[in-house]
Amino acid sequence: MSQKDNKMNEMTGYDxxxxxxxxxxxxxxxxxxxxxxxxxxxxxDNNAVHTNEEFASKTIFHxxxxxxxxxxxxxxxxxxxxxxxxxxxxxxxNLRFKAPVRAGDTVRAQVSVTEIFLDKQRARLRTECFVKGxxxxxxxxxxxxxxxxxxx
Amino acid sequence: MSQKDNKMNEMTGYDxxxxxxxxxxxxxxxxxxxxxxxxxxxxxDNNAVHTNEEFASKTIFHxxxxxxxxxxxxxxxxxxxxxxxxxxxxxxxNLRFKAPVRAGDTVRAQVSVTEIFLDKQRARLRTECFVKGxxxxxxxxxxxxxxxxxxx
Lengths: 152, 152
What we know:
Two copies of one chain form a homodimer.
Chain A: H1 3-6, E1 24-30, H2 33-43, H3 48-51, H4 53-56, H5 68-81, E2 89-97, E3 106-117, E4 122-131, E5 134-144, H6 148-151
């Protein structure tokens, strides 16, 4: 087994022992009309500002916007797919919504390690989402990473 | 226009002027296999613990679980559909994940008004999710409600 293999859990996520403060990863996803329709279905959130163009066009948003929690879910993907990656378990997620996201916008979620609690197998992450470089969500997460020590 | 009509915005959500501390509403949704598959698609979060039974069965969860942010999205539905209801805009949402949710579980999201900032058109809500009476998510939200004063 190579050194690199040693440094990954079985699904190739980072173990808590290999995280360092400042490590950063991004995951991007274009939010489409279909995503908004499907998110309304899975969440039960059929707010007219997401699903009724005639209503939404008369609001301060001048048209339909994506659900805030849909954009925020791209953070979940960045954590699960990238950093710490597969095997990570969510403990907390705080979200501040800064600007609306519309169908066609590409949400870039960026997660950065800000604090590591080795004994508790936990890491604190700064979690941000951007559209064309502008912040749309800010916040932070606390997650439980996998651990080589726990596996052995 | 009846007194009741006066007390609702055009989409029948509560105006900030009509909120009172202690007001509570719930919205429930059964999380199905289909919801988990669709949420993986809209979020981009294909974590094996949600989509790979062979992997998930060997984890501490002993089987696939729903995405944390999928369960949390039912809170968004409770806010948008019930309290304050249509027209509400999310400002912040803090989430603490307490226990896993599985396909077939019915998530009951409960939101309660804990603080009102009339001049800023904002309300703080306690936001909780339960499965069979047990808490699976705790947290709070800050939202901007509609306002009769602003409309007139």
